[in-house]
Design a protein that fits this description.
The complex is a heterodimer of chains A (176) and B (457). Chain A has 176 residues and is α+β, with helices and mostly antiparallel strands. Chain A has 5 helices and 4 strands; from the N terminus they run βαβαααβαβ. Chain B has one domain: Formate dehydrogenase/DMSO reductase fold. The chains are: A alpha+beta (176), B mainly alpha (457).
Chain lengths: 176, 457
Amino acid sequence: MLERGGVIGRFGDPQALVGAVRQARQRGCRRLEAYSPFFDQEVIEALEHPPSPTRKIMFIAGALGLCAGLGMQAWSAAFSYPLNSGGRPLLSWPAFIPVTFELAVLFAALAGFAAFLWRSALPRPYNPIFDVVGIEAASDDSLFLAIEADDPNYDAASLIELMKRAGATTIEELRP
Amino acid sequence: MSALAAAPEPPPQPAPRYLSPRTGDAQITRAVSRPLLARAGWRWWAGFLASLVVTIVMFVSIGWLFIDGVGIWGINTQAVWGFAIANYVWWIGIGNAGTLISSLLLLTRQRWRSSINRFAETMTLFAASIAGLFPILHLGRPYVFYWLVPYSNVMGLWPQWRSPLVWDLFAIASYIIFSALFWYTGMLPDLATMRDRAHGRLARKLYGVFALGWCGSARQWREYESFYWAMAAIAVPLVVSVHSVVGLDFAAGLMPGWQETIFPPYFVVGAMFSGFAMVITLAIPIRSGMGLESFITLAHLEAMAKILLMGSIVMGLSYASEWFAAWYAGAAADRTLLAFEFTGAYAPYYWALLLFNLGLPQLFWFRAMRRSQVVLFCVAALVNVGMWLERILIIVNTLSRDFLPSRWGFYVPTIWDWLLLAGTLGFFCFLFFCFVRLLPIVSMHELRQLAHEEREG
């Protein structure tokens, strides 16, 4: 949690930041977070965050939507409101496919969006990272690496030194 | 901006044709956000006000429809579908290309999509929403459209699940919600950029609220990619299903010229074709109007022209298979209809349709034509006209010549038909004029990613 403070360094390119992440991890630091203006696979891999459960959630929600859609139509057409139309079968499942499919997709999409917000901790109007001087560059042309103060191996002075050597252009220590 | 436009062209090889490898992140941010932060010029105001006037025409014609009923249109007991359904099919077709461009090109790693996916998706959202109005307006009693929704009512009634109208409701509603989620998620990082750039207090607050506190952390990016790619993967079958359902609206009927198994895929191709035509029609004014020539390049336009050419060929095959089926099946009603299409009262429109959809796109076999903005714009605009003609003719030709000669008749549009069509076009432009001033029309974060990949090789 950055609420307890930390060391934040600004980097010009992803390679330098990845270097800093590797060194910090070698020292045993585990509470690292990078902030970047675009998606970068290497940065994400270097940080070794746990994998995202979003797609599993979407799959389960899609399967639920499928059952709910088919179930709703089958139950209403065959049991709740059976309508004999020229002796045709009540459980005419091929005609139920379009709605079933649309509902499966809709459920998956809505659940995926909810999972995305939940896992990204959004919406979050205030975030301590916003207090860092020049942080608006994280949505423009710079990357930031934060090592949080509740890391067991946290030592501000040596981490500042580490970031300097890794190529950080500015470094700031955030205190609670 | 002039410095950016004058940036030297990239070397002819290797790959980076769509973005100069010298493009810096800050340069991208500046070029895309500049039109949102600067004051609007007279051209924007003129377009905005003109489209606002036409939008008012749309609301007036819808209002009059609510007061007086569908009798204000040219529909009659013979031609029960008219402009409303043609407009619906046309708009939803345009509304399909955005998601297709965005998702299909993402999944196939066509990286040039980064420059055009945002406004193509926006086009989708606006067009699909406008399309969704028409079946409702066409209901006769549009204010009870919610009867299509399964909700608990005192009579214990349920929708008729075997009806294509109900399929339509589910398909369009799911599609609009889905497209909105996809579009908004893709925009979150750019909204954060705007939040950090906006000058005014109110603008910063609003962008901040809609950015939801996005901070670009690695955790957020990982979740973003995971969700966004999964959405792209299910978007493709969704898009196909939406326009297939539109095709089934016709194919599930028993009329000559409608009851054909080819209709769902034929409609999907038609949707892609008209949608790409609309993207080109929009891209050319946007790139010059917003000074985005270095991001939406001639190479982008050329790639889209090739897709248009391919679409035109597939459309030709679809038409030919319709003609062949009508002749080969030997049913009198189908053959009468085919003869009516080529020689009947609406034949000039049919020939125009063939010229616009099949003839003109053949110009794109030539590189010079693909790279000429004037040719590209004119052909794309005429393809839009041709596709609209196709939709209206599918409806009125069949309804004018069904099985019983005693029921043969014609459809003549009234002034309200035309005003509503024009009004929706104006409303679409109005929404776009608002969009280009309020939201980044090119995905900045995807361009940054592309620029980094180009630089690292």
